[in-house]
Amino acid sequence: MNIDKKIADDLVANDISFVTTVPCKQLAGVIEEIDQRDDIFHIPSNKEDEGMGLCAGAWMGGKRPAIIMQNTAIGVTLNTLATLIQYYRMPLPMLISYRGELREPVACQVEMAVHTKALLAQLNIPTYHFHWQKDVEELDNILKYTFMCNKPVAILTDANFWGGYGDQ
Amino acid sequence: MIRSEILKEIAPILRDQLVVCNIGIPSQELHAIDDQPSNFYMLGTMGLASSIGLGLALAQPKPVIVIDGDGSILTNMGTLPTIANNVADNYILMIIDNGSYGSTGDQPTYAGRKTSLAKVAEACGCENVIECRDVDTGEVLQKALDSGKMHVLVVKCDSGNAKNPVITMDPVVIRDRFMKAVQA
Ligand SMILES: Cc1ncc(C[n+]2csc(CCOP(=O)(O)OP(=O)(O)O)c2C)c(N)n1
Ligand SMILES: [Mg+2]
Fold first, then answer.
1. ipTM value of the model?
2. Closest C-alpha among B146, B108, B107, B151 to residue B128
């Protein structure tokens, strides 16, 4: 299975046509895939809170958005999640590379990894963790759930899910 | 002129457009001067008015006017390259540059000192960047709307705030009526 293609297919199948990204090495493949899709408008952002602003506007304009970012960006976006996405009750699927987990080679990444789930839980953000490739089968249901309840929803994808880091 | 005097003057132009308005006193002033369902008031999240407006402009065809502030642009400076590189000709970013953080007590910003937001916007690749005086705002804004081209307007004005009540409308109500205005 090509996970990058599968993720892009699920986004398109759920009518998600506006995707903003800030890169992570683990996300390089899926970002490239999304960039090539005609049915997705890909707008790179410079910071993840900016990206969430773009997504909020696109959703109010009638397009279904998504953001693709690294878990370190949870630290950047707490205020935006609470005072924009949640306060105005907007849906936002967040495909997040979960750096600092098993098979991580960069020690600094662990420093935000240990806070990631706690922060998401503190914000009452529904959170899913993809560890095995087959976990991606849940993505379609998670996207439907997100636009059913109009909430930000986190999909954490760790190195094991992406097939390892450095040796992939 | 201070921001509220400018908003009063351009209210007839704003009335029929989708407007995304900056956090704090700017939104309170616009709400008090001419509340419209087509106004999206930011109640928090300093800095993101320009991004919300850009997402909205890219997603649908109606003109979008963002009323932003110099302090908010400085806090989300990354917005300008994104705007420049994703041209939406239905997008007008109007930065009310009073050289201060108005809502929090008029503390000076760097835009009121050495930093030119118009030059920053140009360096980021934005086209149709116009810096204008407060008294010319209405004319410049109307021209920008009529041109059907993306614009960044930097309105140089005085620091100061009108006294208005805070907005007590529920955010979901603000958002819901705004989305209905978008679809209308
Ligand atoms: C993250 C964050 N920092 C600080 C504030 C406080 N704050 C609210 S509005 C504002 C000033 C905004 O200034 P500007 O965008 O220039 O608008 P003006 O009121 O001057 O028109 C500040 C500092 C905030 N709401 N959020
Ligand atoms: Mg200001």
1. 0.98
2. B151
